[in-house]
Each structure stands twice: as C-alpha cells, then as structure tokens.
Amino acid sequence: MSLLVITLAIRHDRRNMLRIQRRTLRDSTDPFSIPEPRFLELFRFSRTAVRVLLVEIEPFMDTAVRSTFIPNSSRLCVALHYYATGSFLRDVGQDFVCLISKTMVSRIVHQITEILQNHMAQRYIIFPTTLEQQNIVKQRFFTATGFPGILGAIDCTHVKIKKPPLAVEHRYINRKGYFSKNVQLVCDFDLNILACFARYGGSTHYAYI
Fold first, then answer.
1. Mean pLDDT of the 17-23 span
2. Average pLDDT, the chain
3. CA-CA distance, 199 to 195, in Å (whole number)?
4. Cβ pair 185, 196 in contact under 8 A
5. Which three-class secondary structure state does DSSP give residue 82?
6. Residue 5 CA to chain centroid, in angstroms?
C-alpha cells in the first residue's frame, strides 16, 4: 500500500513540474534573441523591421494577464514564419522558437492576418493617385531604366492554397498541377507594392486578370 502511495506521489510531482515548465517556457522564449542571420532565415524580416511592425499592430492584438499567455512578439513571429515558409501549421508550432500547439498557431495566424488586412494594408498598399505621387514614381523608373511614363511594374504570381471544396476546385487548379490563387501585383521600382488583386483562382490566365 505504501509503495502505491509513493508511486502516486511521484507521478503527481512530475505532473506539477511539467505544468511549471509549460508556464515558464513561453515567457522564456524570446525570438529577438536569435542571431540576425537565423532570424532572417526564419521570418524573412530583420529584427528591427519586426519590432517596428509589432509596435504598429500591438494595439489591435489581444491582451491578457495569464501566466500562460503567449507574448505578442512570439505571436507575430509565428505568423511571419508561416507566411515565409508556407509550411503546415503543425510544423510551425513545433519549431524550436515557437513551441506552440497546432490549434493555437492556427488562431494566431488568423488573428495576425485579420489585423494586417483590416488595419495595415490600406495604410501601406496605396496606388499613386495625385500628380505629385505619380511623377515621383515615374521619375524613379526613368532614372534607373530610361523608360518614361512608367507608373508601376505588373505581374501575376501563384500563391499555393489548400484544396478547396470539390464543387469549385476546378477554378483553383493551375497549369503546374496544384491549387492556388492567381494574384496580380503592381510595384514601383523599389519593390513597394502599390496594388494587389487576389480575386481569381489558379486556373485563370494572366491575360484575363
């Protein structure tokens, strides 16, 4: 009987230790402590750029006082890592930087995406409409290439997506054999995105878009 009590006590202590480790793990994982080359590899942005972005979107992010709450810096890096690699959510959640469950990673990506779409996109993706803005873009192209009157460079790119419902999957299968959105982008000479159009599936030809 005493042996059973001791065994149960040991199991209880182990569970308590795991809870303590889980509570402290997330707070002790600081993505900004990663060396700059590795940080660029994981997130495709410099640490300075991510810090600036974090300051801008943090007012729109969730706040909490729970000890297990994932810091906003880690949340942003989880989303950026997913955008950068296109890997499955489980792979992102198991990265050594972001030890987060698949369910939580999915929630984080959804939240950050909504913030970027609703609060950031309209602020930064702006096509030049005034004569002064257009002349600046034209002059930059002309200085670099010698071509006059260019407002932007336009092209389409396939963005891979999950398999859509069977009834509409024919709209999204592209010529390379995978499902995608055919996204049209316009940028200036410095690669700043001026316009984005992501209405059509991968089966739609560039010329039609």
1. 52
2. 83
3. 13
4. yes
5. helix
6. 50
Report if pTM > 0.85.
no
Domain ranges of the chain: 2-123, 125-197
Distance CA 82, CA 1 (A): 52
Amino acid sitting at position 123: R
Q: How many CB atoms lie within 10 A of CB 39?
A: 19
Start-to-end Cα distance in the chain: 76
**β-pair partners for 186:** 154, 195
Share of the chain above pLDDT 90, in %: 54
Question: Which residues on adjacent β-strands are paired with residue 183?
Answer: 157
Give the distance from CA 26 to its chain's centroid.
20
Write down how long the chain is: 209
Question: What distance in Å separates the CA atoms of residue 206 and residue 154, rounded to the nearest whole number?
Answer: 11
Residue 195 forms beta bridges with which residues? 186
Q: Over the Cα atoms of the chain, what is R_g?
A: 23
